[in-house]
Amino acid sequence: MKFITLQTKTSLADLTSQLYAFNAATADAEAAQAQVALRQANPQLGKLATLPAGALVVVPDVPGVNTAPLSSVTGVSADVIAQLQQVLAAAGTLLNQAVTNQTQSAETSLSLIKNRAVINLVKPLPDWQPRLAQIASQTKIQMTQLNSAKTTQLQGLAQLGKDLGSLRSGAGT
Fold first, then answer.
1. Is the pLDDT at 53 greater than 90, yes or no?
2. Where are the domains of the chain?
3. Which whole-number Å values give the CA distances from 120 to 110, 117, 125, 130, 135, in the listed order?
4. How far apart (Å, rounded) are the C-alpha atoms in residues 23 and 26?
């Protein structure tokens, strides 16, 4: 799968003919198949008749259809890659902040459950004592799940960073 940035406004039909090499005998069917694949891979295009200049387009592989050499269409520009890297870094920062906030909130809940005043408050309410233990247990489980999810998401962000790095080296920068 490749990515391109449209340099000029164009129709889907024209873009399809630039991106794919069709067999003469089956060109119409292959072009229709390629256009469906382009629309599916690029839902942001919707039902636009004309695709705007500057649009980032995913060029999907289409079974049985070869991709044309992309000399007339440029790859992802270094500016787009730099912007994507900034967005990726911001996503990592937001993830860390969100996890920190949720962890602090959970730790506050655990601290309150252990607070002498809260314990004394629920002593006369026997139904509430097991509930506090249950809240403490669920909070600890949520903290474990939160840290696990954070690890998985950071690994995903790291992989995206590597993928962007290979796009950058593929763009010749």
1. no
2. 2-67, 78-170
3. 16, 5, 10, 14, 17
4. 6
